[in-house]
Amino acid sequence: MSRARRRIVLLFAAALTVLALAPAAGAHQRPAGYGATTLALDPGAGEALTKLGVTPGVVAPATAEADGLRFPITNSVFSALFTRQIRHSGGISLTSGPTTVTLTDFIINLDRRPDLTARINGGDRASILDLSLRGASLRVHPGVTLGPVTATLTAGAAAALNDAFQVTAFTEGLTLGQATVSYAFGGRPF
Questions:
Q1: Structural domain count of the chain
Q2: Which domain does 152 fall in, by range?
Q3: What is the pTM of this model?
Q4: Are 77 and 185 in contact (CB under 8 A)?
Q5: Is 176 helix (H, G, I), strand (E, B) or coil?
Q6: Can you give the pLDDT at residue 14?
């Protein structure tokens, strides 16, 4: 892991620690969530999907917002600190004709090679996106925000999508978009 990447991961862990130890604002209110990760789709990736006749959609409770696809974070700051994983609910569906591929229950792994894994069609979990922290920044206030993180297709994900849709257009390293992870301060939703 490069020195810069290690520094961002360490800063993220430190920021999560500060967030975890800070008193919750409005503690008398029921927390509405831990935050969300937003994926702003790369215009080229969206155009490529359209040309292939593949229609993307969201799997609830994920939502499509003006700034991108938003996936709720389901684990606490404490969990993220100790497991180095950020877990999400919802997902993405990709449909072409009678074929639909669903990618759900995302986990961002903050290890030596950051990636995002997903359940494919509700079954096995696989690494689908490599995550590059190069150029990402860390902000602490009012919560903890890390981004933008560049998300590119893994070789396995590209092969699986090519096989499912009978195409050869998906390639390893294809930029899917930019992700921003936003942990809420005091459990406030994003």
A1: 1
A2: 3-187
A3: 0.81
A4: no
A5: strand
A6: 43
